[in-house]
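#structure-requests
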Amino acid sequence: MKKIILTLISVIFLVSLISAQQCNPTSCPGGYDDFGVDCTTSGLNFECVRECHIDAGCGSYGNTEELRGIYGVGVGDDNFFFENIFSLSSSQCYRIKSTVTMNVDDFDPGGFTHFNTESYRLFIEDNEDSISDCTSSSFKQFGTSFTTLGRGSGTWTSKGKFIPYQSGGCSGNVAYGLEGDLGVIIELQTANWNNEDNEDKICSGSYECISKSDCGNDGSTGSKFCSGNNLMQNYKTFSCSSNDCSSSESPRQVESCNFGCSSGACVQGECNEASDCGTDGPIGERFCSGDNVMQDSKTWLCSNNNCGSNEIENLITNCQSEGKVCQSGICVSEGGNGNGGGDGDGEGISLTVWIVVGVVVVLIGLLIFLLVKFGKKGRK
């Protein structure tokens, strides 16, 4: 019993192993946890399932993108915020920051109400931060650090402005005399928002065979043919290897033909030789031919596998050579009554003959008597 159980366990393990080898589901989507592959079989069909799961949350963040807003600014634009607004999608997660740039074309635009600019202060504000920086450089860029927002909702607004000053260090009187390009940039990294989800990757198929019986039944196939005096037919044997069916054919003897084989069949017949037909020898009763005791004999023949025969009269004995005559197939003494002098075999037959002769004589005598008697009455 233990051997049977171990064998069944081995077969189940082997089938599962073959299934895993022949069917490998695709990998889980990015961000999903892979809980492995489970394969099952039903008859010749198999199915393998890779279980994938993801918890609710943000996936992996991608590369940084920039959303630029560039504004030409000049006299009268100072101390005025320029905005860059971005709508946040609930299907995305965000890491986001704000950057402001200033590219100055002219520090001294002229005009009697304007004063030369020696320095300027850049301001940046967004949903999370508000910072500024002072510079005298013709180009300036600064910004906030990345803020991880998580799942998107609402909008993100980045704002930038500048204030020019007549003296360095961004102190003293306002200059009102700076022209250039103000950039308000939103930098962001996005990731997909994932709801909790199970996603199974499935592959399936079917085997050609698990055991030999799935391939077909062994047996004779094709037409019969002759090999010498033997009637033959090919025999097909099936096998199952690595879940694939194969077969082989080999000739087998169907019958040994007694009278030869021709055109895929045994030749029909009665004999191969005369002795198959019967035994040669005498037939019938002995009879007389003159004073010779004769008897028919049959000789058997085999021709083209069919029986035939010849019958001839054979001399048994010549009665005259014994001083006898032939009567009813036996030699008897001439004039004898069968009680002596004749062959012992004919003694009964000779007595019968004499009785018959006696009856005939009596009948003849009776007939004569009747004729004479009735003849005399007629004359009267």
